[in-house]
Amino acid sequence: MPLLIGNWWVLLQSGRHASSPTDHMQDHKFGPWTVHASEVFATSSLSFAFVNLKPIVRGHVLISPRRVVNRFTELTSDEVADIWHLAQKVSSRLEAHLGASSLTLTIQDGPQAGQTVPHVHIHILPRRAGDFEKNDEIYDVIEAASKEFVREKQGEAAPQNSSQKVDADAERKSRTPQEMAAEAAELRTLF
Amino acid sequence: MPLLIGNWWVLLQSGRHASSPTDHMQDHKFGPWTVHASEVFATSSLSFAFVNLKPIVRGHVLISPRRVVNRFTELTSDEVADIWHLAQKVSSRLEAHLGASSLTLTIQDGPQAGQTVPHVHIHILPRRAGDFEKNDEIYDVIEAASKEFVREKQGEAAPQNSSQKVDADAERKSRTPQEMAAEAAELRTLF
């Protein structure tokens, strides 16, 4: 009965990985750290989308493969397709939901490109006219925020600021778990 | 004879889109402009990879879908998978070939994100320690270079420089068609 076998296979897959409401209720690894279920707002079979501790702009989110993989080239062909299909879905719904007009999508792939967490992640940032004085200043802030994320996770004190942009970043306060959960709950309704 | 029909279909597809040596010998549309065959160094069924008029770093290349599509969300599911599979292949071979240690992969998706050519394109930039004084300064230069590309294609004179970074960019000279063809020929050997 090949059809039944097929159905069972689908059920098994679905129980393991499907993007169902309950599937959000699990923690994920983000490099050596944990992204709590409350911070995850969308999932696909091989990837998950989550909110940020210190978003650069409203709706600045991250997408990672479920498997802990450091570099983009280490992703399997299925993971590449899966993460970018999820990124496309998240992008379009986020932009519409937040009334943005453009998006920055970027991977800092490796330490010399500014990657701080050793786990592939796509930054998605809804953009609006004039959101940054210089359009690409946003990347400086992404990098400063990434470094700060690691520092906070490691429980270190913030270093002395050495530039205006890091000053600007330091003014942003880490969000509470409740604030992050509230944003994730809001975004979860889009999926 | 389903097998024969299948083979014919494959042959037809292959004649139209395969990544064969001769397939590089065709021009592609890049928004309203043409990327000449000599500038293309890798192709897949739905995408093509090409060299830059003014690369920011050695090996700064672009990848676009063959179909002229403005925004990332407009790509079909097949196009999303195809362009990122090609990007992954290009990334790993480029990094190894040029002895780089990281990569910046980015899409400026829409004008408010710095997109100047209305045709989806992934920037891939091999990165090395210390290649830019501030790691993410590279994005400012990407944007300045994108604007310059459009200006040159439109045959306009370069404007007065208004910032140090645009000054730095203005020092870079547009490459000749011969220089671009030579780089594409070098990179083509990797595929």
Automatic annotation (TrEMBL), chains A, B:
The record marks Y139 as: Important for induction of apoptosis. It is an enzyme of class 3 (hydrolase). The keyword Hydrolase applies. A motif (Histidine triad motif) lies at residues 119-123. Residues 26-134 form the HIT domain. Residues 150-191 are annotated as: Disordered. The active site is at H121. It catalyses: P(1),P(3)-bis(5'-adenosyl) triphosphate + H2O = AMP + ADP + 2 H(+). It comes from the Eukaryota. Substrate binds at N52, Q108, G114, Q115, T116, V117, H123. Its EC number is 3.6.1.29. Residues 166-176 have a biased composition (Basic and acidic residues). One of its GO terms (molecular function) is bis(5'-adenosyl)-triphosphatase activity. SUPFAM superfamilies: HIT-like. Keywords: Hydrolase, Nucleotide-binding. Its cofactor is Mn(2+). Pfam families: HIT (PF01230). PROSITE patterns: HIT_1, HIT_2. PANTHER family: BIS(5'-ADENOSYL)-TRIPHOSPHATASE. This is Bis(5'-adenosyl)-triphosphatase. It comes from Auxenochlorella protothecoides (Green microalga). The lineage of its organism: Eukaryota, Viridiplantae, Chlorophyta, core chlorophytes, Trebouxiophyceae.
